[in-house]
Each structure stands twice: as C-alpha cells, then as structure tokens.
Here is the input.
Amino acid sequence: MSRMKTLTLACAAAALAVSSMSAQARDFRLGLITPAQHLWSTEAEAFAQTLNERSGGEHSVSVFPAQQLGNEAQMVQQLQTGALDMAFLTIAEISNRIPDFGALYAPYLVDDVNHAARLLRSDAAGELLDLMPEGVGFVGVGYGMVGMRQVLSRSPIESADDLHGQRLRITPFEPIRDFYTATGAAPAPMPLLEVYDALANGQVDAIDMDFDSILILKFYEQANNLLISNHMMFPMVGVVSGRVWRELSEADRELIDTAMAEHLENVLSGFEEMDAAQEEEIRALDINIVEADAEFFSEAIAEWESIWAPKAPMLDTLRAEADRLRDE
Ligand code: BEZ
Here is the structure.
C-alpha cells in the first residue's frame, strides 16, 4: 500500500473515531437543590424528556433534586471537575465567585416578578452569563428565577428597627448577608431544606424567603408574620460544565442549549403566572401582614450600595436596563 493511501486511511479512521465519539450516547447528570415538586425541579425533568426526544433517544438526563448531590458549593466543584454535567443553580452561589453577579441583588432593582423576568431576558443580563466560562468554568445557558424576597418572622416586623438583633435566615451568599447586616439583623446562612427545622426549633427568628417556598415548604406553620417587601429578585441559572461542553459535538451543544433555554424560559414565565395567586393564597392564611418599600430599608440600601457598587461594576448597566424596562 502506498504511503499516501496509508495516511488517507489513517485519517479516515481518526475522523470516524471522532465522529462516533461525538455521537456517543450520554446519560447526563443534572443537580439542583429544590425539592421534587418545585418548578425548577419539574422543568429540569421536562428538559430531560425534551433532550431525550430530540436526540432520538440517544441522550438522557438523570435529574437529582433536593440537594441529593450536595449543596450548591459542592455542586459547583463537581461541575468544575466534570463530575457533574449540568445544574440549575441559584445566582447566590455564582455571586460568591463572580462578584458582578451581585448586581442582580441590588435592593429594589426591579419592582416585581414581571419586571425581574424582563431584566433576566435582556442583553444586559446576558452579558453577565458571558463571564461564567472564565469566572467559574461553566457555560451559562440562561436564567430562571423564583419570586421576590419577603421576610417571614416569628414576631412582627413593623419598622426597620424591629430587624435589629433578629437571627435571620439567609441563603448563603454575600450580597444578601451585607443587606441584612446593614439592617442590624444577625444573618444566619442556611440552605433551603434546613429552614423548616431551624424555624421550628427556634434556631432562627425570621427567614428571607419567596412566596412559593413559603407555601410549598409550609414555613407559615412555624412563623406567622410576613413583611411583604419585594426587596430583591432571586434569579437562577442553568449551566453546563465547561469540561463537559468541550467534549460535545456542535450539534449536541445546540440541542442542549436550545432545549435547556426553553425550559428555563418556562420557569421565568411560570413564576410570572403564579405570583399573584400565591400572594393571594398567602394573604388568605391566618397571618399578620405588613408591607414595606425601599423607604423602609433606606439606610440599609445606602450601606449596601456603598459596598456593592465598587464590587459589581455591572450594576450601572443593569440598573439602566431595569429603569428602561420598568414601564414596558
Ligand atoms: C432559598 O435559598 O431561599 C431558595 C433557593 C432556591 C429556591 C427557592 C429559595
């Protein structure tokens, strides 16, 4: 056989090996912290089904809800090593690693869930996702969210002074810690699934939470005062491990990107649709409700801005976009 022909055959064999590798059937693993009945988890399952169908049964996704693979900090490490393929993560954990994401937690950046969803669909929010490959080693496919943050407490909070000294559960991340520290509360970082017991046994006096979680996880059984403050949005991001992404064919990347983005959009629109009914359901419970606005938290907001404006230069861009979208 001529040398030329041997080389051509070797190249063809190598090309075949690469193409069969890229067409390799995969069972991806997707982790998240929310319980199985939460919209993030049901949309993760629906994404698994969509990907399986669109890949003609070649790819499947095993979904691990309720922190089965560990907390978000642990899942971030697994994603970085490629031990975990995909996740739906709160931006909380990402903001601990890429401070610019802290801008999404600027108090009263948005007015309500519809405004939050519009901002998360904007190019300005998309620019943040572009920071993820270098910042944490993931591909950020798109955003989801839950509803706006409120404060549920064992004793009434009627003025900012009532927050002083309250042991107040927060999701473990810095922008929210700095906000509550500025109010004079004592923030207690704690994952979502530990909150019910912490409220029940008096480990915390109050919790930072959204309507949906208050209802699903029945936190109102343990605390019957609600400050409806809508003080922050609470975004989520759908990610793929950068290591895993690099192994995928262009066609598989496109398939995953499109299918995951569709189901993340379902999360955004799902919370937009559910929010008013959830607020109504909560208002109908036997609980004491107080309402608050930016004025209520004015001193804490000024303090938060002084810490986060220099740390998160994207804040100006996001605020300009949020202002533009306010009345759209
Ligand atoms: C929380 O930490 O409060 C939380 C996390 C994910 C979904 C909803 C709430």
